[in-house]
Design brief:
Two copies of one chain form a homodimer.
Chain A lengths: L4 H6 L20 H10 L2 H5 L2 H14 L5 E2 L6 H5 L4 E4 L3 E4 L6 H5 L6 H4 L1 H14 L5 E6 L1 H10 L7 H9 L1 H25 L3 E6 L7 H21 L8 E5 L6 H4 L6 E3 L6 H8 L4 E6 L8 H15 L5 E5 L9 H24 L1
């Protein structure tokens, strides 16, 4: 690996500068992405074609000296593999043709053959690995069961996810059946990506922060734990660093740090120093700049990056990222400022510390 | 006061049963509210007419044995008083005719004569107090500066409030000018409501949870502190219990508990036992059932209420509420179940404790 900063930080080893990648670093804010999508015809045609997926995965790496690549895909591939009919409406986000409405819908849900239905993901991972040629590590990922459950019950995005919560409360048994099916599929999916060449794995639980604590432990974290244990028990994936991003679940960081994963993603609302205390050195931490900072002027961006790096200190185990994904209306030039500011400030910070 | 449970709980005195009221207890989920709104012609015509506002304030109290009334109004009355032209588009929420776009917009913002511009609120408070006839206490309220700032910069609701955050970062000086103007207006507004007869005051900072910690302290909590100090320094309002609800700011509960207010509102994501530890007995706590529980079946609602009351224990200083406002598609019958479950379970809990 030519640049192993990301892997070293995940292993909580010292680095010459803090590694950085940006959630949704491949996406609509890049004109070259929009051109590829135009050629592909639609978001799904792009995501389901390994060549296109490879092309857009590599685009941000050609622009910025990023320390990791992340597979271009969607977090909703698994519900799609369960036959719910994923599609995208421009400007409105993901929609499913069918949604889960009852316990019998759960019972009648066909088994998903993840490896077969999502072979395009496996093909994309292999192709990206080949094209990366060991320049930087490749991250494979999946949506986490609670978040997939929310989308499957709502049939798409939602403001408050009331259908999902009502089902969880009124049909707890069926909810657990569905969450178990999803966890099993996620395990199979991540192991498939590991076998295809992913070097780091990441779980996105975007809606972990929606729940009251008892529901969080019962319907969300429990399934993260199941997945982490299975990934760490399988020879194909046991040695891959695993990152869990339970967005908004900052009150549960201590518990999350005991899942057995290697790193936790942080949204921007928790100070990284506080997160380090709560997680007691058990995991590396990935984050956590407020993505809105990318809308600010370059000088302001640099000063916010510096503030975060000072809060993080030079202690090992920090991967710089945003606290949430990039948006289509962000400027590529501002992403460049973030990446440069992270590298240059953290290098200077280390030089300063070694002199002291 | 015929029913002083709410005031006793705010003073952290023992109560025979836990007092309960529900955020947005007067609203579209009630058919009688929809009928009044129909007669008024629009939401704003309703909110700006003291007779209509009084009528809808009292409607939930006629249905349910609630322990408090809250003035029917909107959190955006103050930006409206600054001349931004508040209006409502059905199904889309609040919009302003003008929004703040630059530092010069802040400098040129006319002074708001809150007492004159919002005299309809003062009139509504007086009328409601008269009609309540000391049955239960009346809560007056205001939106808090950071939340008002967000709406004024965005011109309405928003997903991520990027305009507001960009202005905060790039135009920090003008942001503070605006936040100071808003804080002064909020102080004047709450004192006006106190003079008109409000018996409890509440500040809603709905977007407190959007911010990274350094921004939270600088642009949000600082102005809550300014208001709390001014309210506690004015003879007209000093003796009124003051509740601060900084939604989503659960990582800052310890700091919030030192503001000098009497109670903190809690959203549903923080366990109330944990919140009590963080706030060290300095304040009463109001909350914090996940509002989505109202979509569940009555048995399930009762069991979730019991779970929360067990977590809260019988320690003094708990006012039961939802962790966020009620929605138009909730069933009035389910609100009745919550109120009854709180009263009956907490009374039994106290009987059990006194026997033990």
């Amino acid at each position: 690996m030519k640049n192993d900063r990301f892997l070293r930080a995940l292993a909580r080893q010292p680095v010459d500068r803090v590694p950085v990648w940006l959630m949704r670093q491949a996406g609509r804010y890049l004109p070259e992405y929009r051109a590829t999508r135009e050629r592909a015809g639609s978001f799904l045609a792009l995501a389901k074609n390994p060549e296109f997926a490879c092309e857009v995965t590599l685009q941000p790496l050609a622009r910025f000296p990023l320390d990791a690549a992340i597979l271009f895909s969607d977090i909703l591939t698994i519900p799609d593999a369960f036959g719910l009919g994923l599609h995208f409406i421009d400007g409105e986000g993901p929609r499913f043709a069918r949604r889960i409405e009852s316990a019998s819908d759960v019972a009648n849900l066909p088994e998903a053959n993840v490896v077969e239905a999502l072979s395009y993901v496996s093909d994309a991972v292999s192709l990206i690995r080949k094209e990366l040629n060991d320049s930087v590590p490749l991250i494979g990922f999946s949506g986490a069961p609670w978040t997939l459950f929310c989308y499957m019950l709502e049939g798409g995005g939602s403001t408050h996810y009331h259908r999902a919560k009502r089902f969880m409360l009124d049909e707890a048994k069926a909810a657990h059946q569905l969450l178990n099916k999803l966890a099993d599929a996620v395990i199979e999916y991540l192991i498939m990506q590991a076998k295809a060449g992913a070097q780091v794995l990441m779980l996105f639980d975007s809606w972990a922060g929606l729940l009251a604590a008892p529901h969080y432990f019962e319907f969300c974290e429990r399934y993260l734990r199941k997945i982490v244990h299975a990934i760490k028990a399988d020879p194909a994936s046991a040695n891959l660093p695993l990152i869990v991003f339970a967005k908004g679940a900052n009150l549960h960081l201590e518990s999350l740090s005991m899942l057995g994963c290697d790193a936790l993603g942080l949204d921007w609302t928790v100070p990284i120093g506080e997160a380090r205390k709560l997680t007691g050195g058990r995991v590396a931490l990935q984050g956590n700049l407020d993505p809105a900072v990318l809308y600010a002027a370059p000088d302001q961006i640099r000063s916010e990056v510096a503030l975060l790096l000072e809060e993080a200190t030079t202690a090992p185990g920090h991967i710089f990222n945003l606290g949430h994904g990039m948006n289509p209306d962000m400027l590529p030039e501002h992403a460049a400022v973030v990446v440069d500011a992270v590298h240059s400030y953290s290098a200077a910070q280390r030089a300063r510390t070694s002199l002291a």
